[in-house]
Amino acid sequence: MEGKIIVITSGKGGVGKTTATASIGAALAMENKKVAVIDMDIGLRNLDVVMGLENRIVFNIVDAVNGKCKVQQAAIKDRKIDNLFLIPASQSDNKNVISPAAMKNFCKELRTEFDFVLLDCPAGIEQGFENSVVGADEAIVICTPEVSAVRDADRVIGLLYAKSVLPKLLVNRIVPEMVARGDMLSHEDVVDVLSIDLIGLVPMDDNVVISTNTGAHLIHNKQSQAGKAFRRIAMRLNGNADLPIEVPRAKKGFWGKLGFKRGRNK
Amino acid sequence: MIEGLFKKLFGKEKSKDAAKKRLKLALVYDKLDVSDDLITNLHQDIVDVISKYFIIDKESIKLDIKRSDNSSSLILNTPILSTRRSQSA
Q: Chain B partners of A184 at a C-beta cutoff of 8 Å?
């Protein structure tokens, strides 16, 4: 097996890296791929709690990279999806306990074990970022349609190119009604500013918070538009590169608006 | 002018246009946050190129990045002492 390692990064914090990692990972596993999602945010782990696996942790990424356990011991099997595994971050260490060289080696091992490995990169561009990027083949850069997120994305894209990791852009939390009013940057604006190819567009969706509350998979929520968008991104990553990118649209007309409100108030 | 009239008739500029304009400028500025090394190397290269055509006072050449609200420019100022005839071919 020669798996692909994809780092999910953004520069700015709080734009949806962890949700994207969990959802895209779950969707890839549903397509019958063996997938590992790895929390690289050492000291501030969260991917475990988002996926509802927080009380199954025994070993973590630091143990696995530094040879204190085997990959199979650190990889926690998902509760609902068969081919999905989580390697959690360590909560007590600091980011320098993993060296980029050790991480690069570990990525080689991961490639033989999984079809896809998604690395949930911590915010910032320090050592945690270096460790996440060093063994990656490709990157997904996440940004929201806000000036701060786009600026940080630009910086990260520059760093990724310098390391020869090809980045693609995911614009997250698009509010179509605001875009239609001209009160939010459209995805065209963001792409124009960043000059980079898109991997997908994800709308703002209350279901993200609702799923996270219970540690359920967003992609299992049939009503979730964000979940649908993440599933399409997974299909694009999984060989279906030409799958058209759907632009989140504002619901039009009386009935559409009614449906929109009903969905949000649930 | 038509655009100005349009704005007057239909209210103020959309906030996303302001965002895009500010972003583009911020990114230009961010990238102009250049290192001293880059400036030194650029300075040397420019001196070399100009010296092919003109005799200049290499010490008094000045290279500046000037930033205003709408643009950034590279400003080079150098006194020319004389031309180099041999380069005219």
A: 16
Neighbours of B67 (CB within 10 A): 13
Residues on chain B touching A155 (C-beta within 8 angstroms): 30
**φ, ψ of residue A104 in degrees (nearest 5):** -60, -45
Residues of A with CB under 8 A from a CB of B: 146-147, 150-151, 154-155, 179, 181-186, 189, 192-193
Q: Is the ipTM of this complex over 0.90?
A: no
Phi, psi of A235 (to 5 degrees): -65, -40
Chain A closest-CA separation from residue B21 CA (Å): 9
Please write the tens of the pLDDT for every residue from B50-78.
888 988 888 888 887 776 666 677 888 88
Q: In this structure, what is the dihedral angle of CA atoms A44, A46, A47, A50, given to the nearest 10 degrees?
A: 180
CATH number at residue A230: 3.40.50.300
Q: Point out which residues pair with B56 in neighbouring strands.
A: B80
Place of tokens 């080689």: A108
Alpha-carbon span A87 to A80, nearest angstrom? 16
Task: State how many domains chain A has.
Answer: 1
What's the pTM value of the predicted model, to 2 decimals? 0.81
* Structural domain range at position A194: 4-265
- The separation between the first and the last C-alpha atoms of chain A, rounded to the nearest angstrom, is 44
- Give CA–CA dist A18/A22, Å, rounded: 6
Q: CA A96, CA A99: separation in Å to the nearest integer?
A: 6
Looking at residue A165, what DSSP letter applies? -
